[in-house]
Every structure is written in structure tokens, then in C-alpha cells.
Automatic annotation (TrEMBL):
This is Molybdopterin synthase catalytic subunit. The keyword Ion transport does not apply. It is an enzyme of class 2 (transferase). Belongs to the MoaE family. The lineage of its organism: Bacteria, Pseudomonadati, Bacteroidota, Flavobacteriia, Flavobacteriales.
Length: 148
């Protein structure tokens, strides 16, 4: 079993930028024990819901509870899979359609592990983390998002 990692906040205000994602990935190029990386980017969709187009989602969370749940998912993934590193970041606040709201990055010595681990982590986040999205439509009306 690997050493437990300290709990840190996974939240970023607003959209997660390509620069932030690139810098997070770049840091791992010098780690020669890594054989594979995998990344999941959750992007806000411009869904058509009953004739209204989503222009943004405003994310809120029970931050302490959500950070604890993210930490538990992280620890569980490290126990279950042979991972070298993992990053999880989720947006809070308003994220426009086309922008990134969830960034999950895993690394391992082996290719197969990163695919299995990433699916496990993303499914656990969707099922267990108290993050809520209010869909904001082009006409500025809104509704609470149903997970999909």
C-alpha cells in the first residue's frame, strides 16, 4: 500500500484552462517510471433542453464534504490500481458551454491501468461527490442540472 496523500482542495474557480491542464501534464515528463498517462476532460455541453440551449453551468458544492469525498476516491484509486500520480480538479462558479469543468489525470507504469483507473474515478465522482450544477440558458432562465 502506498503512503496516503494529504487532503487538498480540488476546486478551481471558473473554467479549467488548457494552460493549467498543460502545466499539470508537463510536470510528469521527467518521471521515467511512468509508462502511460490518461486524461478525462469534462466539458460543458450546449444541450437543447425543451427548446432552450444551455449557455453555461454554475457549479456549487458542499466544499468540505466534497473535498473529503474526492480525497476518499483518490485514496481508493491508489489502493485499487498501481498509479504513480493522480490529479483531480473540478470547477466552481460559472463555466460556459465549451469550457472544461472537470479534469482528471492519472499516470502509471502500465497502459491498461490508466484506462481502468480513470473510468473508476470518473464514475465515483459522478455518483458520490456533492457538486451541483445550475444550467443557465441563453434566455438567462435556469434549472438545476440532472446528472448525465
Amino acid at each position: 500500500m502506498k503512503d496516503k496523500k494529504p487532503m487538498k482542495s480540488v476546486f478551481k474557480e471558473g473554467a479549467i484552462t488548457s494552460e493549467f491542464i498543460g502545466n499539470s501534464i508537463y510536470k510528469h515528463q521527467t518521471k521515467t517510471s511512468i509508462g502511460a498517462h490518461n486524461i478525462f476532460l469534462g466539458q460543458v455541453r450546449a444541450d437543447d433542453i425543451d427548446g432552450k440551449i444551455v449557455s453555461a453551468i454554475e457549479y456549487t458544492a458542499y466544499e468540505d464534504m466534497a473535498n473529503q469525498k474526492f480525497h476518499e476516491i483518490r485514496e481508493s484509486a491508489f489502493e485499487k490500481f498501481d498509479l504513480t500520480c493522480m490529479h483531480i480538479y473540478h470547477s466552481l462558479g460559472t463555466v460556459k458551454a465549451g469550457e472544461i469543468c472537470l479534469f482528471v489525470f492519472v499516470s502509471s507504469p502500465r497502459r491498461k491501468v490508466v484506462f481502468e483507473a480513470l473510468e473508476y474515478i470518473v464514475e465515483a465522482i459522478k455518483a458520490d461527490v456533492p457538486v451541483f450544477g445550475k444550467e443557465i440558458f441563453e434566455d438567462e432562465s435556469h434549472q438545476w442540472k440532472v446528472n448525465s
